[in-house]
From TrEMBL:
Occurrences of domain RNA polymerase sigma factor 70 region 4 type (ranges): 137-187
InterPro entries: RNA_pol_sigma-70-like, RNA_pol_sigma-70_dom, RNA_pol_sigma70_ECF_CS, RNA_pol_sigma70_r2, RNA_pol_sigma70_r4_t2, RNA_pol_sigma_r2, RNA_pol_sigma_r3/r4-like, WH-like_DNA-bd_sf
Pfam family membership, one: Sigma70_r4_2
Database matches in NCBIfam families: sigma70-ECF (TIGR02937)
Domain RNA polymerase sigma-70 region: 29-91
Name under which the protein is recorded: RNA polymerase sigma factor
Amino acid sequence: MHENRTPQVEEQVLVRKAQQGDAQIFSLLVSKYQRRLKHFLRRFTHDDQITLDVVQETFLKAYKALPQFRASSQFYTWLCCIGMNTAKSMIAVYGREPQMITEIVDENGEEVDVLEHLSDYQTPEKQLLNRELIDVLGEAIDQLPPNLRQPIILFEINDLSYEEIAQIMGCPIGTVRSRIARARELLSAEVESRFEHD
């Protein structure tokens, strides 16, 4: 009787079976995370074909590295780590700089502006200036250095924890916290400077 299993426990069971060599179970994990991983990596590659190549390579690497996976981290977080490293390598081959873009795709396949989801900008007063504010924030996020742009989008949009972002970025949790705080400061300062005369 496993009716009370949480999704996390069910995932751990699937991963364990895949680690024991069950390729069909691994295919289930691929199906579960492929779309989400594709949208995540698309923000770095900014190119559909490169994204598809990176996703395919990520799952190949993950399958080979399954014996090394430890359940101390989420499977999806582990995939993101592999995916980001693969994206960096592949982008270098294609001769393009990795970058974030500010659109996400929701569960219906519709593009949604990431800026509308930044929690700090959801007060009723600020929503009165919503369209102009979003435009300003879009420019401000594009101007953030990658080491600040990446964690704030991972945190605000992907809803990843500080711990998960630290794993993906390969840096201490304290660094993630400070970079997110710094990104928010810069975004707030840019918004204030653009609207101070209104």
